[in-house]
Write a structure and sequence with these properties.
- The protein contains 7 helices and 11 strands.
- It has 202 residues and is of the alpha+beta class.
- It folds into 2 domains: 70 residues, 2-Layer Sandwich (Dna Ligase, domain 1), CATH 3.30.1490.20; 106 residues, ATP-grasp fold, B domain (D-amino Acid Aminotransferase, Chain A, domain 1, 2-Layer Sandwich), CATH 3.30.470.
- The strands form 2 sheets. Strands 1, 6, 7, 8, 9, 10 and 11 form a 7-stranded antiparallel β-sheet that branches. A 4-stranded antiparallel β-sheet has the order 2-5-3-4, with helices on one face.
- A hairpin with a 2-residue loop joins strand 9 and strand 10.
- Helix 2 packs across helix 3.
């Protein structure tokens, strides 16, 4: 089994022409300074580790950091988390948060997952599933089955649809993918970007 944590997963997905929110992996205060010069403030900072699957539960995600001194303090806190390998810094990208993903099971092989995303995704339980491959009718019904999907504007539906089809093509190309989570996949002003990702290969 091979796990691609956020940094590795996003690098892999970018090569497959998915839209990734720009970010910088840093391991020093100098790295923080350089990243903020390029990204600006406010920013988001997240602990990076191949061994940490649920960053938010460990306090490993900090939002809306507004000053350089606050960023340095947060960097030091995140580095103290057990198994931390570094910190990812991203610009704030406010919008509606979704979950897009893939699950592979012995019964159905690769299935698509769509629903409400964010740090409390397990509590929301607002998801739907379809077995790959899919058509446009599958995607429309999949979106409508969720509460969050019913409130999606036309442009948002187009963005979600395009990315769900891309995920199906991805697992056809890489059949050893057993799990893939894009959470959150955020839509803002008609643009969709992957904010966080994780991929498991078997």
């Amino acid at each position: 089994m091979k796990v691609f944590a956020e940094k590795e997963a996003e690098k892999f997905l970018k090569k497959q022409e998915f839209e990734i929110l720009e970010g910088f992996f840093v391991n020093s205060t100098l790295g923080v300074q350089r990243a903020l010069k390029k990204l600006g403030l406010p920013c988001v900072m997240k602990v990076f580790s191949r061994k940490i699957l649920h960053k938010a539960k460990l306090g490993g995600v900090r939002l809306n950091i507004r000053t350089y001194s606050e960023a340095l303090s947060v960097f030091k806190d995140l580095k103290k988390i057990k198994n931390a390998q570094g910190v990812l810094i991203q610009k704030v990208f406010p919008g509606k948060e979704f979950l897009l993903g893939i699950k592979k099971t012995p019964e159905f092989e690769h299935s698509l997952v769509f629903g409400a995303g964010g740090s409390k995704v397990e509590e929301k339980k607002d998801v739907s599933f379809r077995v790959c491959p899919i058509d446009k009718k599958d995607v429309r019904s999949m979106i409508k089955e969720t509460k969050i999907g019913k409130r999606l504007p036309k442009k948002g539906i187009e963005v979600i649809t395009g990315n769900l089809f891309k995920l199906c093509k991805l697992v056809k190309k890489y059949p050893k993918i057993s799990e893939l989570d894009l959470n959150p996949f955020t839509i803002s002003k008609g643009q969709g970007k992957i904010i966080d990702a994780r991929i498991v290969f078997k």
